[in-house]
Amino acid sequence: MAYTRYKGDPYWKRAKVDGTGVDGTPYAKGDRVFFYPRSGATYAGESAQRASVEFDELASLEG
What we know:
The chain is α+β, with helices and mostly antiparallel strands. The chain is built from 1 helix and 5 strands; from the N terminus they run E-E-E-E-E-H.
């Protein structure tokens, strides 16, 4: 993971409240979710893992 980090990059965090990810996957308070701060999109469960891997792959192509 050798790429430049930027202010709006997505990151893993713990959910502060119960909710539903962009694909309809529910998550509970305290669950690990993958969050995109620029759009407010939250991914949970398997889709969070896929979103994280996809972002890492795209970011590694940058340099």
